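Today's session is about reading a structure prediction critically. Students often jump straight to the picture, but the first step is always the sequence itself: look for stretches that repeat, for charged clusters, for runs of hydrophobic residues. Only then move on to the predicted structure, which in these notes is written as discrete structure tokens rather than atom positions. Here is the chain we will use throughout the hour.
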Amino acid sequence: MKTDPNELSASAIISGQLPLELELKRIEGLSRYQMCWLVRFAEAGHPYFRKGTPEAEAFDARYKKLGGMCPEISKQLNQLGHD
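Below is the predicted structure for this chain, in token form.
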């Protein structure tokens, strides 16, 4: 995964090993930027993107609630891809 200069660490965001209740709380604590970062850079099979799981449903609902990707965040993330 890419390294984010805004102190975002994929391992700090998700281990995929927490009990469901804690994982859902973690999702509720993600910022819009962090969620967009995951959408852009998460590895295939990431727990938040496995269709039909509680984690994926919670992530999708919060992502939509926060407004999803926007041009400003997309530009910031594109810069990460050129490091």
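Discussion point for the tutorial: The chain has five helices and no strands.
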